[in-house]
Amino acid sequence: MPDNLAKVKELRELTGAGIQDCKTALSENNFDIQKAIEYLRKKGITKAAKKSSRDAAEGLAVIASNNSKACILEINSETDFVAKNNEFINFCSEVSKIALDNNLNIENLLNAKINNNLIKDVLINLIAKIGENIKIRRIDYLENSKGVIANYIHNQQSENMGKIGVLISIDCENRNKEVLDFSRKVCMHIAAMSPMSLSEKDLGIDFINKEKEILKEELINQGKKDDMIDKILVGKLKKVICDNTLMGQKWIHNQDITVEQALTDFGKAIKQNLVIKSFIKYKVGEGIEVKKTDFNEEVKSLAGV
Question: For residue 51, is pLDDT > 70?
Fold first, then answer.
């Protein structure tokens, strides 16, 4: 291993800082380990880095929006206590506004600025001050110049922030209060029922095939005859598809109809043609897994290997 790489590894083991931070600290200090440690300490990186491997599955779903565009972010903390911290909440609010104004992905967002400071540096200082790992986990956008972008926050902890966030885009001819109210009801439905996709055509073929396989095995174990299995399978698979698509689900505000029927009925009532184009739902912590990588794997990742 080259001398410089060996020093990067040594500094990382001593401080817990990321490889890129270690490389910068060493290059700025003539590859002197002790000076590099002092450099990292002054920037608050070592204190923050020691927490960077800890799981952060709490936090907030954050929404920022204007008339035709919205963004939703998930920003994680280790505990719900920190998610209620005013400094954390203010950070989430500022970051969401910058994201909305500039349409940034996470990498570019971290390199954007809050009050002339890089967001990634502000984040490091916030971690060091609060004492918990904090991560900007994901971000998405919806735009619609032909209709409405509506949103809903469930378990709201501050304005436009909570444990579940939903965005929806609906085409319409007139953005009136009735349409906005109905769109919000659809968002509430999504928050409660967690559809996987908008309609059947948007469901992944792998999901459908897997469900078909499970259902078929279930029928075989029940002793159903071969000539009956295919007939029964059609109905069962249709129910699975309906249960997992927004348009096919039972409308939570009226269980006698589907969301698709509710949309059609409402459109007729207000004499507008409404089309749900897309939706996004974030539930804080959903799908988070703790992953640990060793030094060599991180080096390969940075090198693009």
Answer: no
Separation of alpha carbons 202 and 111, rounded Å: 34
Tracing tokens 């249709």 back to the chain, one arrives at 238
Token digits for 277?
A: 């184009």
Tokens 């559809």 sit at which residue?
195
Do residues 130 and 88 lie in contact, with contact meaning Cβ atoms separated by under 8 Å? yes
Residue 1: the pLDDT is: 44
Angle 3-15/19-28 helices, nearest 10 degrees?
110
pLDDT digits (tens, 9 = 90+) for 254-277: 999 999 999 999 999 999 999 999
All structural domains of the chain, each given as residue ranges with its CATH number in brackets, are: 3-50 (1.10.8.10), 58-195 (3.30.479.20)
Q: At what angle do helices 205-221 and 226-244 cross, to 10 degrees?
A: 140
What pLDDT was estimated at residue 8? 87
Query: For helices 33-42 and 19-28, what crossing angle results, to 10°?
Result: 110
Tokens of 58: 């709490």
